Amino acid sequence: MQKIIILDFGSQTTQLIGRRVRELDTFCEIMPYNKFPKDDPSVIGVILSGSPYSVHDPEAFKVDLSQFVGKVPVLGICYGAQFISYSLGGKVEKADSREYGRANLETVDTKNPLFKWFEQQSQVWMSHGDTITAIPEGFKVIGSTADVVNAAFASTTQPIWAVQFHPEVYHTLQGKQLLKNFVVDICGSRQEWSAASFVDTTVAELKGMLGQDRVILGLSGGVDSSVAAVLLNRAIGKNLTCIFVDHGMLRKNEFAQVMNDYKVLGLNVIGVDASEKFFSDLAGVTDPEQKRKIIGRDFVEVFNAEAKKITDAKWLAQGTIYPDRIESLNITGKVIKSHHNVGGLPKEMRLQLCEPLKWLFKDEVRRVGCQLGMPEHLITRHPFPGPGLAVRILGDITPEKVRILQEADDIYIRGLREWGLYDQVWQAGAILLSSVRSVGVMGDERTYEHPVALRAVTSTDAMTADWAHLPYDFMAKISNEIINKVRGVNRVCYDISSKPPATIEWE
Fold first, then answer.
1. Torsions phi, psi of 498, nearest 5?
2. Model pTM greater than 0.85?
3. Cβ-defined contacts of 85-89 (< 8 Å, 24+)
4. Among residues 246, 275, 241, 276, which one has the least CA distance to residue 258?
5. Would you please indicate which residues are annotated as catalytic (active-site) residues?
6. What phi, psi does 120 have (nearest 5°)?
7. Which residue among 19, 259, 472, 496 is the one 20 to 30 A from 154 at the CA level?
8. Residue 122: pLDDT band by 50, 70, 90 thresholds?
9. pLDDT tens-digit profile of 82-99?
């Protein structure tokens, strides 16, 4: 299958480039800047991402352009454009003032294939501290703004294009058209990537990789692991055994509901109630990262104990998706947050790892689920963190705090469904501020109980998100119902933070 390689130089929007390319029904792989695949005939083009560095920084990420320049079309974005100029004899200097935010392309060469169908004036999004003051010999300017003369340029002899703005972000109004011009018209994508093609290709690959081996899958009840299970079931059938561990921090009645859903799907599932162990090991722990690590460790221990009963198992399958891996470790080597299903396997498990969804974004996982014929309520279910409500309770974890949050969360989620708001929201949930108590009055009595924060966001891939503008009448009803019905809560707040700078989860 044809693919575009996106070389990641550490930009926060590299994943958005990948999303935009996938939206063009074209497969792409995001790779570290220094891991370009050699002699891969399926590569039809290369995109160089932005970066937090200047090309002049000693620690700046650099790549040997000769690996692909002249062999396939190349597009440099922001730092990628500056690196192309810097490497090929142009000049990159510190801008008089940081060029950030909206700008207008006032001069556009619409005869150049990169700007086909473009308007003469078009809004773009800039985000850089350096600027290209001279382009290399053999290049020409094809786009300028009032402040950035070399906003876009192209080689006159080779298939190389570069733009100092970000076509992948929403604020570049014709960014999708630019990427389509590059991916489809210039690189020649046949636009053959789809949910159907993914299912066919992946099932065939799984059959070839797994053969008659027995596979164990750790289910969470969420969309990702459920789709992975159905996909594997289609490939290897009875050789798949699923294990669903209840750590005690699922949503209200979730364990029983999910077990029933899996039975309907025809999956072979073993359910394990290990809540007592998790609560014991989490007692007194307040640090978010430590909570995640304890839950990840305990999950492996419980899962491993159950998996050992399946003596002929050779593989462990997981529902890891692309944003999980991106958020766990970015190109600069900084951990943003740990995911319990990312980072390999303990040696004692002696199993090989199978991650059939590892290159998919969440909306792509849902499309694959639809293609597999899964029930709609499973496919449209909101994302839910692997550690469950443990990372929605600020402070230490106790069964009583989980009970409080389960009740509040259940009222909130049921309300979203009843009001027809659930499918308009990417993810929603309640957060218990268990380390905080607020004063309240109920009847004639003074109360001193916990606040609950409600969170709802809109997004397409969880890499960026905005807070959902829920109706005031709905918020008033839910707040009133939580305070009246959930013992231990006397105040309800609504989180109106976007991602970035906040994350979707509070911990």
1. -100, 165
2. no
3. 85/132, 85/134, 85/135, 85/136, 85/139, 85/150, 85/153, 85/162, 86/55, 87/62, 88/136, 88/139, 89/136, 89/137
4. 246
5. 78, 166, 168
6. -65, -35
7. 19
8. confident
9. 999 999 999 999 877 666
